[in-house]
Each structure stands twice: as structure tokens, then as C-alpha cells.
Amino acid sequence: MLILRQDISRLTIQRMVLYHSVLKLMQEEGITICISKELGRRTGISPHLIRKDLAYFGEFGTKGVGYATGYLYRRIEEILGYDTSWNTVLVGLEMPTVVPIMCYPRLWPEAVKIVAVIDLGKQNQGVAVHNLGLTIESIDNIKDIICSRKITIGILAVPPSHAQNTADQLIQAGIKGIVNFSSFPIIAPEDIAITQVNMTSLFSQLTFDLKHVAMKDSCS
Amino acid sequence: MLILRQDISRLTIQRMVLYHSVLKLMQEEGITICISKELGRRTGISPHLIRKDLAYFGEFGTKGVGYATGYLYRRIEEILGYDTSWNTVLVGLEMPTVVPIMCYPRLWPEAVKIVAVIDLGKQNQGVAVHNLGLTIESIDNIKDIICSRKITIGILAVPPSHAQNTADQLIQAGIKGIVNFSSFPIIAPEDIAITQVNMTSLFSQLTFDLKHVAMKDSCS
Q1: Chain B interface, mutation test: which of A106, A178, A182, most B Cβ atoms within 10 Å?
Q2: Residues on chain B touching A174 (C-beta within 8 angstroms)
Q3: Helix, strand, or coil here: A189?
Q4: CB pair distance less than 8 Å for A90 and B101
Q5: B101 is in which domain, residue-wise?
Q6: Which of A202, B65, B130, B149 is 20 to 30 A from B38, comparing alpha carbons?
């Protein structure tokens, strides 16, 4: 099935991820048939919107019966691209040579496999990265690394001042998608898929709320 | 200044974070006066919207002159709560005992300090966490940990099936805000600030786009 991505809104995709998580839990609980009302109760999304979201991708259920939990789960997995392995390169600057919670298996999509780690700094070259079984490499070999390991995704974990330049190098070397963890938007050709993840920004709503709301002290 | 958080939209806060990043870069470049047109050029946000966002929080510039870069930077830092230190507890389940890229100083807000690490699993108790200078503790001592170290933020990095239960324990122990990295929404009282961060979801738009778009091969 070829889906034209411009027809599907980002919000639909985000909700599909939520359906995917809930269906996983339901499977673990041994629930074999699921109705959109129950999916709605567990996700907080209206059953009408759930049926509408799923309808973009085909017919998955039987009217009056519901969806087969396992089947719907696997179909959403396919739709989201989680049934494929996505070889990924992680690029940072003077990173600690340890592997992150961010990449900790329970929180990280299983389909995304880090197969290379590059550090823009000179002093970490050749250092082993615990947990990944990899050695830190140089950006100078980026083209070789991407082509020989069939890498499609680059994770950009460099400071803002290096973000655009590094993205340009990755794109030139053949990368197809970038997850940008630097706190700065990058510009890329239209055929490159980009996801911006700004940790500072994710925390800012919280620190803003906490700063401007009087807090009860539960400890005294 | 007391700001009523319900008056300020989440999008305004997200844009403030972007102004903050750009102003930091401009300071590093030695630019002492900045006009909204230049902030707009660098952020991709219209100068009109920039002036409107800033106006929520007061008068920062002089008409026809612009903003003093350093002053505006520090004021936004205050508004976002980055001028305060937020003591934070990280809670996971069977975490690798290493510190994450997620917490790697260049990508992580400086104001958020991890002062305790809890693992719900038994086997990691007492193990040292490299880079943080901390030792993994038990959830049984959560009330003591939160109160004695004046912790306001909890980072939830547990699997979905443990998310709500762990959040409840944190809230009961006095936590004020939660950054939820588990891929499942949690329910909390209204006075608890919550930020959801779903890594799988962040990657899903990318894997969806990559899966459903024909890709040119740059390597052959």
C-alpha cells in the first residue's frame, strides 16, 4: 500500500502511536478483540476519531464485532514503519561515551538501530561506546559509513552552532531522515524527513508552570 | 511578576524557547542590540508575532531602537524558569547504569539538575551512576528523597505498564512536575505540571515518512 504522506496529518500519526501502545498492552492482557469504544476509553480519544484515523489506512475491523487486537497492532506497526529496521548514525560533539536513557530499550523505538556513532571532537575518536558495541568514528568518513551500513536516519545531538553544517554533511552523504536534538531548527531539502526534538523546550513548559504557580509544600 | 499560566499558550512558550536560543547565539556573536526583524529572520517567526509574544510579559525594548540582546536573554531566562535550579529525580526500571545523551549538558536545560536516581528493579539498588556522582536508590524511600533534597521535578522513564502507578507514588511524595518519557499518558491532579515526551512517537513521523516515500539511493 502506498500512502501519500501529505494526506495524513501529523496528529493522526501521533494518535496511531498511541493506539499502537494501547494495543500492545491489551495484547499483553490477553484481550483478543477490541472495540473502538475501549480504545477510546484507554487513550482518551473519541471512538469516532479513532475510526476516522484508522479508515485512512484501510478496513481493519468488522462492524458490530470490533478489531482483532493482534492484527490491528501488526497493521499499525507496518503503517508506522516499525516493522522495518532503520539503521541510524548518532552524531554528537564531545559526548560522554555512554549510552543514554534516550536509547534505553523500553523507551526507544525498537526499529531504530544505532549502528554508528560519530563525534565531531577529536579526543573521543576510537573510544568504545559501552552498551552499543561500537567505536566512535570521525565525520570525515561519513559517506563510507552511511553507504556501507545502509544508514537512513541520522540523530543530530550537536550544539546549535554545529547543527546546520553537520546536517548538510549528513544529507550530502546520503542520509534520508534526521532527528534533530540540537535546540535549533535545521533547513533541509524537501525530500529529507526531519523531526525536531528540543529537550530544553520540552522542559520549558514545566519550568514555566512551576515558576509561575504558587506551590503547596507537602514536606513540612 | 506573577503570570497567570492559563493566559499564555503553549505555543508562545515554545517560541520563547526559540528566541532564547537565538539570543544566546547572537550574544556569542557580540550582537548587543537586536531588532525583531532580525530575530524573525533567524527563527522563521514573523516580527509581528515576536512582538506580540514578548508583550505578554512586559516592555523589553525601545521603539525604533530594538532590544538589548543580553537584557532580553536574561528576562526570557527568568520567564521560562531557567534562572532557578530545579532538583529532579530520575525514575526508571532496570535502567542501564550510565548517563544519557538525553542528559548530555549541551542538549539538556542547565537549570534541571538530577539529584537522585531511583530504579524500580531490585538488582540495580546501590549501584553507582557514572557521570552523576549518584547511587541508585529505592522507590520505598521516595518521600524522604524528595523532601530532604527539595526535589520538584520527576522524570518518569519506566515502561507504560508502570507509568501511572509510579506517577501516583511521586505525586503522593510531594513532586510538583513530571516529565513523562514512558510512551503512555498519565493522569494527575490539576496542580501537577505534566510534560509528555514520547520518543517512539517522535521517531514515528520520520519512520512513517521514510516508509511511504520512494527513496533515491545516493550510494550507488
Answers
A1: A106
A2: 217-219
A3: coil
A4: yes
A5: 86-203
A6: A202
